[in-house]
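PROTEIN–LIGAND DATA SHEET

This sheet pairs a single protein chain with one bound small molecule, coenzyme A, given as SMILES. Inputs appear in the order they were entered. The predicted three-dimensional arrangement of chain and ligand is reported afterwards as a C-alpha cell string under its own label.
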Amino acid sequence: MNDARLLFDWRSRTSVRRWMFDSAAPVWERHTSWLERQLRRADVLMFIFEEDGKPLGHVNATQTKNDASTWEWGFYIGAEHTAPGSGSRMLLLMLEFLFTRKQAAYIAGITKQDNIASINTHLRLGFTRRADAGPKVLRFGLDRETWLFCHKELEARYFSESI
Ligand SMILES: CC(C)(COP(=O)(O)OP(=O)(O)OC[C@H]1O[C@@H](n2cnc3c(N)ncnc32)[C@H](O)[C@@H]1OP(=O)(O)O)[C@@H](O)C(=O)NCCC(=O)NCCS
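PREDICTION REPORTED AS:
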C-alpha cells in the first residue's frame, strides 16, 4: 500500500486540498478504508501518473449510475515543482484511456468557480462549460466527437519536447 501513503501525502497538501470539495485534512484510517473500497469497485478507475519514473499526480474516474458511457473524473498534480503541462499530459492519457479502452462517450468534470488552473485545463483539453452545478461550482463536459476532432493536435503539443 505504498500508493496509499503517496495519495495521502498528496491529498494532505494545502495546494491540493484547497481545490477539493471536501477540503478537510484527510485522516489515515478513513483514507485507507476509502481507498480499499475504491479499488474494489468496477465502476471506478484510480491511477497514479508518472513521468521518468517519478510519480507526479493522481487521476480517477467514476462511471455514472444512469449512463455507463459517461464518466466523471477528478485529478490533481501532487508532486512539487512539476514541469508545465504535466497535468495536461496526465489528463490527455486518461482521456485516451476512457474514450478508447472504456468506450466512453462523455467525460464530465466539476471545479470550484475560482479554480483557474483546473478551468483553464478543462478548456485547453476541449471541454466546454455546461450549466452550473450549484453555487460556486462549475461543470464541464467533453464528448467523444470533440475529443476525436482535437486530441491528436493536443497530444502533439503536450508530448513534444518543446514544452
Ligand atoms: C489542475 C492541475 C492538474 C493542472 O495541472 P498543471 O500541470 O498545473 O497544469 P498545466 O501546466 O498543464 O497548465 C494548465 C493550465 O492551467 C494554468 N495554470 C496552472 N497553474 C495555475 C495557477 N496556479 N493559476 C492559474 N493558472 C494556472 C496554466 O497556465 C495552463 O493554462 P493555459 O493552458 O491557458 O496556459 C493542477 O494545477 C492541480 O493539480 N491543481 C490542484 C488540484 C486541482 O485543482 N484539481 C482539479 C480539481 S477540479
